[in-house]
# Entry
Amino acid sequence: MKFTKFFVGALAVAAMMSCGNGTKKCDSACADSACVAVKVELPIAVQLYSVRGDMEADFVGTLAKVKGMGYDGVEFAGLFGNAPEQVKHWCDSLGLDAVSAHVPLADMLADVDKVIADYKAIGCEYIVVPYVTEERRPNGELFMQMIEEIKAIGEKATAAGLTLLYHNHDFEFNKLESGQPGLDYMYENVPANLLQTELDMCWVKYAGYEPVEYLKKYTGRAPVVHLKDYYKEGEMEGDPYALIGLNEGEAKPASAFEFRPLGTGVQDIPSIIIAAQENGSKWLVVEQDNPSLQKTPLECIQMSIEYLKGLSE
# Structure
């Protein structure tokens, strides 16, 4: 793998500096904010898309492994044919909070009442628009229509006692003719009581914005924060979404971009956690779209929870 020397080097530097692991053994190469011990006060969930293959093969067994790692809750990415009532029973038996669920917008538009009923039966507090296709992105022909669709879904969710969230990628930061990023336009034009944010820290940073500043911008409107780390070498070529199981024909060189377990990439995770805790967030959700460092998906999410637990030590 072309990244080998970068992986080894990055891990060696992390071990030498102990940067971001709750100690203060840092040198000038490490930002001060990443070297200060952070008490993680928010509960931690994992987006189960991170271990989707394991979930499909052994749904309840994978939930048990997630609980055994120390996660407090889960965010679903499909039920793999299991009945909502059965999923609730498994989560309750394991002591896992069913925090939220990523549900394709197409599914919500097709039968939002069923989506709401299914995830209420599981006990979720949030349902999330996880991704939209090109025509619904900023400057796409259906972007304005999508805003109205989200309003309508938000009204139904709110009436049913659920909260609708929107999970961003980088394309929502594309600017409209006014110069305003599409993401901000959407949040300005859909009332906060109908739509809250699920800011994905990887894509905020990848789009060229500071994650901490964006969290502050949506103080009180970001109940769920996606913690995601990554490593990027040089400029990304083409479409990065091949890396998350979309646009499969657009294969990308592994050396350009890679999702990483928390604490092994470019993100200042401690500062993000501090901002989330200061700005009213309720959950931190770990997500790693694809494994790396020659680890399995389960090993990657275990590395992330161990890193987070270590921050408070």
Observations:
- Residues 151 and 190 are 6 Å apart (CA to CA).
- The chain has one domain: 41-311.
